[in-house]
Amino acid sequence: MPLRTGGRVLVDNLVAQGCDRLFQVPGESFLAVLDALVDEPAIDVVTCRQEGGVTFMASADGKMTGRPGIAFVTRGPGATNASIGVHVAMQDSLPMILFIGDIDRGTRHREAFQEIDFEAMFAPIAKWAARIDDAARIPEYVARAYATAMNGRPGPVVLSIPEDMLLDAVEVEDRPRTQKLRQPPDPAAMDRLAELIRGAERPVAIVGGAGWCDGTATAFAEAATRIGLPVAAAFRQQDSVPNDMPVYAGNLGYGPCPLLPKRIKEADLLIVVGARMGEATTDGYMLVTPDHPGQIFVHIHPDPAELNRVYRTELSICADMRSFARALAGVTDLPHFDSGAAAHAEWLGWSDPEPRAGVTMDLGPCVRTMREAMPADTMICNGAGNFSGWWHRYWRYSGPCSQLAPTAGAMGYGTPAAVAAALRYPGRSVVAIAGDGDFLMNGQELATAVQHGADLIVIVVDNGGYGTIRMHQEREFPGRVSATTLANPDFAALARAYGASAETVERTEDFGAALDRARAERGVRLLHLRTDIEIINFATTIEALRNR
Questions:
Q1: DSSP per-residue codes, 248-315
Q2: 4-170 and 353-547 agree in CATH topology
Q3: What is the pTM (predicted TM-score) of this model?
């Protein structure tokens, strides 16, 4: 075997694991990796403008491929900037590996330039955080990182790579490609689940989490439809199943269909498939309490550590989503419930927008216009803010990987995620939805999109404020506005400065034509929608909050 530098070994082992793209902001601490990438055509190197954008893109890529999205940043400020994406990948159960170029091994524990103990820093928000001190062990660490990031509950791994280690010349074999493990459900557990379904009167399924691909969604939808099982989606995981399935009941979280929480509370059997049942999905653990008296709770999850961690379960099934969905589809002699069709009808009525009187820019009809004009498999990517609620309510997601949205509630996610989506699926329509405050947290990644030839539409909803916080402010301290007003740039002019096409839309009736013009072009296109902060979300107004 020839001698190779640590940087070369690292790149070779990424290729061996199937890595075809990585996201990075360059740093002097991993120059040996950048040098090795010059000679590696198998990896597309995406150069970003801020490390938060790097890890947002990598985490989104991990959701889309099912294998870890790969990110490289430098030590100190680079790593601290990147930490937001690690947190998102952990809470969203997304496979990702973050490599951090680190100080050389001989200067540790001196508070050297930009020195941080990354194992200690990332341990609470990553599945595994480690440091590679021996170049000969790089294949071992990379293979383990892939296995850890993908299996059980997927999540982020953080590996620090000292700059001097990357220059060491070693003789070492590469590790073979690590595969994601399949965990079929226990047949006895499936028999018990069938018994519970046969004995139920008001069952409801809640789906979400990782591992939902087209085949999984199809198999589960077939089984749920056959038995008439109402299917609700966890917060911001509406794309787990196609929303046009005849038993889809809508999403949980903030602002669900008003009849859905009632249906969840009255259910005698809850079948939770893949979802963690976090705080947002359960309305602060109150919609479904950890002990859920009067309800039978069945939890299906690929990681045994999640089962019985928060919720008492009458039946725990450790299985990956694909294996479980196929097993459920094979179960026969189950009753049929009328509640699935009823729940779907309730959601259809609630998700069909009606114009709001006296509103100049009304987002509900805008979403309807998008639904009618754009392909069903359009990918909607958004960050955090009240603006996203219109799409959560009125958009109809086609199935897996049609929604990239952080359950962790991180602002600034939508634009980087859309860049990753446009590069991964160049033939699909990709739309980033961002509020004005949300957009300016990572709007600089428009430069990345333009540089790398991404084809996407960005819609900036501009109400001149941090709308979600303003809403809470008006609820708790009516009329006492503090620290939530924003003075914004001309977003259309800003987009044009990056090399995108752009226009400003101020009236609902002008949106359709503007969308058509944007769709007729290629590259990065931005629509700047000016809205009134008085219309604080899709359900209420500031005046109504104050009057309450």
A1: EEEE-SSS--THHHHHHHH-SEEEEES----TTTTTTTTSS-SS-TT-EEEEEES-TTTTTTSS--SE
A2: yes
A3: 0.96
